[in-house]
Request: fold
Amino acid sequence: MTVHRTRVVSVEKCCEKVIRLELERPEGCVWKTGQFARIALPEFVVDGEPVWRCYSIGSAGGSETLVFYIALVKEGQLSPRLHALSVGDTVLLDDEMNGMLLEERLEAGGRDLWLFATGTGVASFLAVTQDETIMSKYEHVVLVHGVSHWVETEYVTKFAVPHDNLSIVVCVTRDPGSLIQMRIPEALTSGKLEETTGLTIDPTVSRAMICGNPAMAKAVRETLKTRGMVTPRGGKPGQLLVENFWL
Ligand SMILES: Cc1cc2nc3c(=O)[nH]c(=O)nc-3n(C[C@H](O)[C@H](O)[C@H](O)COP(=O)(O)OP(=O)(O)OC[C@H]3O[C@@H](n4cnc5c(N)ncnc54)[C@H](O)[C@@H]3O)c2cc1C
Reply:
């Protein structure tokens, strides 16, 4: 692990509670699409140590900069401080990248790639839309974004790279007007998601990644399990990958 001091290239408010933070890529810092990095601030130290948090990288492997989408957790330790950053500020970046959401871990031969996210859990999937190698493998890529209000999803259509095979399905629970006005787990169990997309979820053709709120991740994982989709384990291939943002 090497800790780099890097700089803020840009910081943009996506909505009241989410920023898009772009950092310089330090020399030698590499990552794969879907991984997360640990970041901290040099001046925010507790008991002599910087306070580190994990953030999914919203730019594809090989990109010029590291992009993050960061939700404001009001009483949180680090996220309010990240929301106060300006261009040119220094950020600490641990260059040991990790993560479950590596497309190469999915069983080969999938036709449809389902990407399920709540809130800023969409970051890794925005990176997927920038990755031609992944996008060109699938006939359909369906990005399902669960939010409470429309404003919390507008940045997704702005920063997702359009492709003929990409569909973005938004599940907005507290504002009217979305095709699916229910949480992602209910959209799945009710059949509404498959009805809306015209695609059937089936382990022979479907592959899925889930990221964000642990309650959503657990519920979607359990539903997909009943359809025969499992995470890779003990050398056995799987059709499903999961990343939780907290316990
Ligand atoms: C692998 C991984 C990847 C992550 N990627 C991202 C990311 O791309 N973007 C992002 O915003 N966060 C992400 N997180 C969450 C992030 O690491 C922090 O937990 C979050 O920013 C809160 O940190 P804090 O110090 O402000 O709050 P803390 O004082 O540490 O409080 C933590 C509490 O905040 C809540 N919380 C954490 N994350 C969120 C969130 N995104 N939305 C709402 N409530 C939350 C939970 O209740 C959690 O218990 C990720 C976490 C993990 C483990």
About this structure: DSSP finds seven helices and 13 strands in the chain.
